[in-house]
Amino acid sequence: MKTSIFSLLFLCGGICAAPALADSHPADTISLQEILITAPHKTNVALTPLDVTVVNAEEIDRSTESSLLPVLMQKIPGMFVSERGFAGYGVSGGSAGSVNIRGVGGGNKVLFMIDGQPQWAGIFGHSLPDTYVANGVERVEVVKGPSSLLYGSNAMGGSVNIITRSQQAEGISGRARAMFGSFSTQKFNLSTGIRKGNFTATIAGQVDRSNGNREGSEFWLANEFAQLQWSASSHWSVGANADMTQSKANNPGTTQSPLLSMWTKIFRGTASVHANNTYENVNGGVQAFINWGTHKVDDGYAPGADPRDYLFNSTDYNMGFTIFETVNPWAGNDLSAGIDFQHWGGHSWNTDKADPSKKSAEFKECENEVAGYIMMQQAFLNDILSVNAGVRLQHGSQYGNVWVPQAGVIAHPSPMSEIKFSFSKGFRAPNLRELYLYAPANPDLKPEYMYNYELSWHQHFLGGKINVGAAIYYIDGRDMIQTQMIDGRPKNMNVGKFKNKGFEIDGAWRISDKWSVSAAYAYLHTDNTTIYAPKNKLDASVSFNPGPFEFTLEDCSVWSLHNGNPNGTEDYTLLNLRAAYTYESAVPVTFFVKADNLTDKHYEVVYGCPMPGTTVMGGVEFKF
User: What is the pLDDT of residue 45?
Assistant: First the structure.
């Protein structure tokens, strides 16, 4: 394995590797002294024996990224996201944005949520990476490992909960940002909110546009977000939010198989209402949600071939509700329970380009899922030791019953240290495409599932100036859905297996008020060839903050990445630089610039899709 000099310097300077559990980077990992609540408040994350990492608004804003996925990949050890170019992931053939956590991902094995609402396409089941924007986000909570006890199907390999930002200060405040850079890229976003007594309202909008780094890879996106909240009393609050995204991503195909006129146009929306209660020994609530989407796809054509005479169309939806409550029946005991219901499905068809009223290959189907879960944690020895156990029973209209157990131990040998051990099960129900669409369809498929064993440790030193951590894990996956030839035809079958094992180490050090360093290293060994899951991944950064200036140098190194190349794996090291200057006034103004891939490294995350060389973006942000 070839390690760059910069990588070694970062690793040594950061003490050890991973996305810091640090006061120097408070966003990276949950503080041992701080309790953060997921949304919806199904349980306190401090009760979860799995490894939970939190990336907060400060880290997201400092990245100057408009998409969340690059930020998460930099901050979460063990997470990797496939990319095919400078802008836009897409959702059709040749799309990117596949998310792996510890080698488990692809399709819909990692559950994305917005304020606890599941986000995935109802027919194909995949996540929707272009819709996960950074604008209006308060924090992102990532669970590395099965989250099926709380969230059911699709949280098999982990969960990513995007928590939206609400107005905190009394009165009106907000921010506006404009960015310009390589490939005629333009990015604009605006967010503002008002708080008056017990009422808050927040709105945000974002527009991105780019020509992309390859001819035929143009991209545009618009996002709108609105949130209302009202504290009806000291014990009850109610709220509602809505989030909508429109985008069009063009795909030029691969260098080996180029395509003309391949594009995906999507509209996604999500909305919810909720009511939460908070008492001395009881807290919980209820949430009803719906998310939906419409997609129009032209699969393109090879140069010299005839254009396709049809477009693919689909609509999908996912609606339901969740009821949850946590009680403290006696000292040191937390008992969480809930009921979930989801109704999801979709409709797809082809339309004739010459006559859109002509439809063909029409499909429509839906599924229902209902579940109940209970989880209890009991603390002993003045919270030095806690024992956690829970179980979920989920029933699907297609696959029947699935039991999901989870158990773990959390120890605090000192106020500045934490040790977790857990056993958990995760599962993924087959999606509608696998069940009913195209030649390999098999309506008798059962869910995929995996068992996860994990041990983690986090430690603070020097009053939190130095933070280190480590985790080891073993994953046993079974009944993976794979296509086999049965009686002379392809058929989806529950025949696949895999075993993943690995470790992650992390460290961060606030050297002084001006200097800080952090690093993160993840190692993965799998007995199967897993695409877009590197064997080795290192992320590190050095920050220097003299007065109103801020400089950050980042390293991202990847080795032994299977990217679809039949002739081998991909290795690369990227260096990225961010610089900012803030002029303090009645309306603070920040000027910033970032340069990615400073060494102009040639690399391909997706085989046949060259990533851009050195790119530069600059902009200005106003806070009011």
Answer: 67
